[in-house]
Structures are given as structure tokens and as C-alpha cells.
Amino acid sequence: MRGNKPWKKKYEFTDETTEVDGKTLHRIRALRDFSDVEKGDIGGFIEHEGNLSHEDSCWVYHNAKVYGNARVYGHASIYDGAEIYDNALVGGYVLVHDNARIYGDAGIYDNAEVYGDAKVYGDAVVHLGAQVGSYTAISTGEKTR
Fold it and tell me: Phi, psi (5° rounding) for residue 51?
């Protein structure tokens, strides 16, 4: 429970699956309206419910993927072929799109945006409104803000 309101699931798995690196990912469907997502909208693919929070307005859109121990939460939007995997954390008001890859133990937070085939990996952190794009790679030990 959050406050006095009962916790309510915001998505379910559909029957559609895809395989990535030997993992089975499940397409998601919205169970309620939130942000720009309407009940019944089809989302992207996640491996398990631990990948995408049922709270707030975070969402994995149609052709994006989240798997492994990666977690998307807060108000993050993952779309346009982006992939979040391994132990990566993406949360807050974050946009990850246009084939960007977030993996390893990387973290994307606080109004950051990663796009355009960019890769953020290792234990790199992108936060505080930073933008990373156009084939940029940020790796272990780097922080961008």
C-alpha cells in the first residue's frame, strides 16, 4: 500500500514473447490509464515484473526491452528500440530512446536523456539533466551531469 490507497498493478503480460540473449521477454499491456498510456495499450518487452515498477508513470513502450536484473521506475520512458539490461537502474524523469543501450551496473536518473545509439555501461552514472546521444559511449567510473 502507498498512503491510504491500495497498490494496483498497471500492466500484465500478453501471450507474445521474444528471445534476447537466451532470455524470454514478455510483451506488456496496460491495465489502467496513467501519463500518456491508456488502459489496453500494448507496451514493449520485459523479462519479469521486477524490471518495471507498477508505481508512478514509468513505461516500456512498444519496441523497447528491459531484462536481466535491470529496473525501470519513477517516471522513466523507454522507447524506440532502447534496451535496458544486466543490473542497470533507470528512474526519475528519464528518457531512453532511439536504440540507446543501458547495461552493466549503470544508472540513469534525475531528468537525464540517453538516445541515438548511445551506450551507458559499467558503473557509469548519467543524471542531473544530462543528455547523452549520437553514438556516445560512457563507461565505468564516468559520471555525466
Answer: -75, -25
Amino acid at 87: N
pTM for the whole thing? Answer: 0.92
Return the DSSP state at 92. S
Q: Which residues contact 34 (CB under 8 A, 6 or more apart)?
A: 10, 56, 57, 59
pLDDT digits 0-9 by tens, 24-67: 999 999 999 999 999 999 999 999 999 999 999 999 999 999 99
CA distances (Å), origin 52, targets 32, 140, 144: 15, 24, 24
Closest CA to 49 of 25, 18, 81: 25
Q: Residue 132 has which C-alpha cell?
A: 547523452
Distance of CA 90 to the CA centre of its chain: 6
Question: Over the stretch 94-126, which tens digit does the pLDDT of each residue have?
Answer: 999 999 999 999 999 999 999 999 999 999 999
Gap between the Cα atoms of 98 and 86, Å rounded: 19
Output the nine-digit C-alpha cell for 138.
Answer: 560512457
Separation between Cα atoms, residue 49 and residue 116, nearest integer Å? 27
